[in-house]
Design a protein that fits this description.
The complex is a heterodimer of chains A (255) and B (795). Chain A contains 7 helices and 2 strands. With 255 residues, chain A is mainly alpha-helical. Chain A has a two-stranded antiparallel sheet. Classes of the chains: A mainly alpha (255), B alpha/beta (795). Chains A and B meet through helix 7 of A and helix 1, strand 2, strand 3, helix 8 and helix 24 of B.
Chain lengths: 255, 795
């Protein structure tokens, strides 16, 4: 964020565009919050069955009647902010969500690779989009899951695939080298730990190291199947046991 | 459903509350339930395999394979953070073309042979003539590996023909420390980075090369701290993007900048008069040249610097006089804490010793020394350049613990610890790297007295400068034999006569030492693939084969095997790989090596202390309580026990009076400068994603995907001048060789007009065909950062 401002006119233009886009979202969010406030005032007073009537029937998983008022409002807010109908956030989508997440990582816990072009020469202003998370035209810039570091490209490198020349110029005379195979099989995310009893909050299946902001994956712009059903609750660790397996507890310094 | 939800919330809260209450009653942490059976990942500590920063990782192992790593949150070095290489380090083990069996060249193909045969072949080569058998090792050798190699060569074969790749990497830092303090390695440590107000890098790009250290400083800004970062460089890099000021200087201009600062400190009277009076002396080059030069007076020193006015230095360096004044003003302020940091820019330099001593001199003269945040600090590129090469002394002139082969009393100490006959170690140093490879490439009858080189853990076929002169010639001589121990096919195994498959990283026990004097330890966690075996075992096996053949050097004064290790009162057969892990060979060798470390106050703790720690910084001194205490700030009385209460004490002073030496070093032009025929400077170096010659990182799809091949960075003006496009293949040509590379304009780095940059990681585009082998007089380290080239269009 505090990179120098010398010789960055081009970036400045890009930033201007991004800033405008972001302002739109912020406006939408602000409007949304306004709606929440007013709707919440009314909805919160409504009896449950009437709340049920107002719930859009888009979700395959019917929201819990008791919790519906806030959930519905959050869902509406999300739709408003993201500009697209909230698709189903159901368990069945979790596998696909985890697979999509894993595709960009060497193993669970590895830093994801960057799926877009970045400025190779300077310190790109990643936090502009990723500090709070951002969604533009259906593309989501996930919120940072960890405390901000300044040198983002230290850990996150650009993902290069055939046909893009984001990294270095590609020419017919210097084609990409043959991709080398690896026999490495990275650890994948542990199976979600089963709650101790019916209806109990599930413990976390992963460490909290570098994943201190749950909203990055589980917040309103998280992937289908990963989003929390109760984004209004802020203190996740109150109910969800931290690092529910021994290895994770050890890594988080608890053992 | 609402009722269900409310019920479960209540239930779970009640449940948790009950358990919390129970837990408190039992005095234990509350646990919701037994940990679920996870897919059996076990975690253990190890330092990262790559650079000299020395980050610790937690290594996750399942079913005999490494499946994940995580930054170790208990490690002081990295505090849980890694860089992209570190996060992908497990993949370095699993390239599909790992070497898995010994291979012998027969005509134009390689045939698999047994380990017994391979060991016999090496023993045969030794017996062709002990003195012509050389080892070329590495700053990636673990401490016990380097120690065993050093003992095998110097204590066993009675030969000093052993030198490491670190000669190409930090030899000038060593000579700089020796000439200044009389003893090697930094006085400060990474803690200085937490305390400095100003960070000055001298030809260094830590954002890519030492990212975790760089973040350690830069992230202080996120916490609202003020850190001024001045980036002195010969090209604009990723580090420059974070700098308050980037001062682009002409190659070799660093000498002028340092002299300009010294001049101004004296001229303006802003030097630290008390510090200099109490703790410093002055030196200049002697005739003939010698590492310790001749003493000069303060007046002589001042007179020598008279001509280095900011204007004159601006002319030499290309940095405006005002900026040189700005630097001198910073050093002239006693209230600031200043860290100077450098790596290859100052070391791979034909005046490497000079510029190293100059930067120490700037800190000493200004008194920016010995307080947290005030330190001149050199960084290393390899995980154990310090631990193995500098401390174990795997150099042609050195012995463990900072001792020298040239000193009779030092040889005697080594012979005593090794229990070998007096006179075993020759007084004459062996060949330094450049000479070693020249001798290997010279026919015997023309004085090429090296007939065999055994390379371990390094890739000279790609990394030696001017490979046409240093690598290729021996391959045309029938009686020369090249043995290479490595984990993957490399530019060096491809030209080898015998290839030995090695174990790497957590496939073996190990110890390394990072850039801040921190000694680190790990245990073997997985098995190496196929028949790959530990490098250390390979050395012991050859030694034992020679012992069995009656080689006198391989027995000590009591007739026992040179690597005699006892288990239950009997010799453990560690030369037999099946029994190699019956004992902890690392621990036995380390405890023996530890005896050497007392002579120069580089005290190491017992092995078991390193098992418990995420590394300890030497000297590690035992306290009255029995506890072992590390030292963060060497020569500073508040922390270093060997200062004996004095505020500052240079207890290994070359002048034996507790004083550090401030050197006068004149500006000297580089040996090859661009001219009409070769009009461009060539600088070579590294990139974030790849580690050195890329033999590991180029096999990691994520890293290779991000940085797939080498390129030549070119300034837009030069591109226009030569009429080349971005991506066009051009020929870069020096007096020594040429290479065709794609052009990258405004790429990762941005050289100024007149300079091109090429990274050296890509085996298919080896830039060292083009580089120059000219080297520093004292350190014998070549200069990879500047030579003259021309650019030709080939389309």
């Amino acid at each position: 964020m505090s990179g120098p401002v010398v010789g960055r006119s081009r970036e400045a233009c890009d930033m201007q565009e991004a800033r405008t886009a972001r302002r739109k979202v912020q406006l939408a969010l602000a409007g949304g919050v306004g709606l929440v406030v007013s709707a919440g005032l009314v909805a919160g007073l409504r009896p449950p069955e009437r709340g049920n009537e107002t719930a859009p029937a888009r979700s395959a998983a019917a929201p819990a009647p008791g919790a519906v008022s806030t959930n519905v409002v959050w869902q509406q807010l999300r739709e408003l902010a993201l500009g697209s109908p909230a698709s189903a956030n159901v368990k069945e989508h979790r596998g696909a969500a985890l697979a999509a997440r894993a595709a960009r990582r060497a193993y669970d816990g590895a830093p994801p690779r960057v799926p877009h072009q970045v400025d190779q020469r300077n310190a790109p202003d990643c936090l502009f989009c990723h500090s709070e998370g951002l969604s533009v035209a259906g593309r989501v810039a996930p919120k940072l899951s960890h405390q901000p570091y300044l040198n983002c490209l230290q850990c996150h490198v650009v993902e290069r695939s055939a046909g893009n020349d984001w990294v270095i110029p590609e020419t017919p005379d210097a084609p990409l080298p043959q991709k080398l195979d690896t026999a490495f099989e990275g650890a994948s995310l542990a199976e979600p730990a089963a709650p101790w009893g019916p209806g109990a909050p599930p413990p976390m299946p992963h460490t909290v190291h570098m994943r201190t902001d749950c909203a990055s994956c589980h917040g309103p712009s998280g992937r289908d199947g990963l989003r929390t059903s109760h984004p209004e609750r802020q203190n996740c660790l109150q109910c969800h046991a931290q690092s529910a397996n021994e290895g994770a507890r050890r890594l988080d310094g608890a053992l | 459903m609402s009722i269900e939800r409310r019920e479960f919330l209540t239930a779970s809260l009640l449940g948790a509350a009950t358990l919390v209450a129970e837990g408190q009653a039992r005095g234990e942490l509350p646990v919701i339930q037994d940990p679920p059976k996870l897919p059996g990942v076990t975690w253990n500590k190890a330092p990262c395999r790559f650079c000299g920063t020395g980050c610790h990782v937690q290594v996750g192992v399942r079913d005999g394979k490494v499946v994940a790593v995580q930054g170790d949150q208990r490690a002081e070095v990295n505090k849980g953070l890694l860089c992209v290489k570190g996060y992908h380090v497990p993949l370095a083990l699993y390239g599909k073309d790992r070497l898995t069996e010994p291979l012998l060249r027969e005509g134009d193909k390689y045939v698999p042979i047994s380990w017994e045969r391979a060991i016999q072949i090496i023993a045969d080569r030794v017996q062709l003539g002990d003195k012509g058998f050389a080892m070329y090792g590495s700053g990636q050798w673990t401490i016990p590996e380097g120690y065993a190699a050093n003992k095998f060569m110097k204590g066993g074969l009675g030969s000093n023909q052993i030198d490491p790749n670190a000669r190409l990497c930090m030899a000038s830092a060593v000579t700089g420390y020796l000439a200044t303090y009389g003893v090697d390695e930094p006085s400060g440590c990474y803690d200085d980075l937490d305390a400095c107000d100003v960070l000055i890098t001298w030809g260094n790009n830590p954002a890519e090369m030492h990212p975790v250290l760089f973040s350690r400083v830069m992230d202080r800004r996120s916490r609202g701290e003020q850190v001024r970062f001045i980036d002195m460089a010969t090209r604009h890099t990723r580090s420059s993007a974070f700098a308050d000021e980037t001062l682009l200087f002409k190659p070799q201009g660093d000498l002028a900048i340092a002299n300009g600062i010294l001049h101004l400190l004296l001229e303006q009277g802003t030097y630290d008069e008390a510090f200099v009076r109490e703790h410093c002396a002055f030196k200049a080059d002697s005739e003939p040249q010698d590492l310790h030069g001749k003493p000069i007076s303060f007046e002589e020193f001042k007179a020598s610097l008279k001509k280095y006015t900011p204007e004159y230095c601006a002319q030499l360096s290309g940095v405006p006089a005002a900026k040189i004044r700005m630097l001198a003003d910073l050093f002239g302020r006693p209230d600031l804490r200043i860290v100077s940091m450098w790596c290859m820019g100052m070391n791979q330099h034909t005046q490497g010793t000079a510029i190293n001593t100059l930067v120490h001199g700037v800190h000493l003269l200004s008194g920016h020394f010995g307080r947290p945040g005030d330190a001149p600090m050199s960084l290393t590129g390899q995980p154990s350049a310090c631990g193995t090469v500098r401390e174990v002394g795997t150099l042609a002139h050195a012995l463990p613990g900072g001792l020298l082969v040239a000193k009779p009393e030092d040889r005697e100490k080594a012979e005593k610890i090794w229990n070998v006959p007096h006179g075993r170690i020759p007084a004459k140093p062996g060949y330094h790297t450049v000479d070693l490879w020249k001798k290997f490439g010279t026919p015997k009858e023309q004085g090429g007295d090296i007939h065999t080189v055994w390379v371990q853990v390094t890739n000279p076929g790609q990394t030696l400068p001017n490979s046409h002169a240093l690598v290729d010639p021996s391959r045309k001589l029938k009686d020369k034999f090249l043995i290479v121990s490595d984990v993957y096919p490399t530019a060096t195994t491809r030209i080898a006569d015998l290839i030995l498959p090695s174990a790497m990283w957590v496939e073996k026990n190990g110890m390394v030492g990072n850039s801040e004097r921190r000694t680190q330890q790990w245990f073997k966690m997985v098995s190496p693939p196929g028949k790959a075996r530990d490098d250390l075992w390979q050395i012991v096996a050859v030694a034992h084969e020679l012992f069995a053949r009656g080689h006198e050097g391989m027995r000590d004064k009591d007739g026992r095997f040179l690597f005699h290790i006892e288990k239950d009162g009997e010799a453990a057969p560690i030369w037999d790989y099946r029994h190699y892990y019956d004992v902890n060979v690392d621990e036995h060798l380390f405890e023996e090596y530890r005896k050497f470390t007392r002579y120069k106050h580089k005290d190491l703790a017992p092995y078991r202390e390193y098992v418990k720690a995420r590394g300890l910084r030497w000297p590690v001194v035992q306290q009255k309580s029995g506890e072992w205490r590390e030292t963060r700030f060497r020569f500073s009385g508040f922390d270093d026990p060997y200062c004996e209460g004095k505020e500052i004490r240079f207890y290994h002073s070359p002048t034996k009076n507790d004083r550090a030496q401030i050197w006068f070093r004149p500006y000297v032009a580089p040996p090859e400068v661009p001219d009409a025929e070769y009009p461009l400077w060539l600088c070579t170096g590294r990139v974030l994603e790849h580690w050195h010659s890329g033999s590991m990182t180029m096999r990691i799809p994520q890293l290779r995907g991000s940085m797939p091949r080498a390129y030549v960075e070119l300034h837009r003006d030069d591109a226009r001048r030569f009429g080349v496009r971005d991506g066009e293949i051009v020929r870069i040509e020096s007096r020594r060789g040429s290479l065709d590379l794609p052009v990258w304009i405004d790429g990762r780095g941005k050289p100024p007009p007149g300079t091109v940059f090429v990274p050296f990681f890509d085996e298919s585009l080896p830039i060292n065909r083009v580089t120059l082998e000219a080297h520093d007089f004292f350190s014998k380290q070549p200069d990879y950062k500047k030579c003259a080239v021309r650019l030709k269009r080939i389309a």
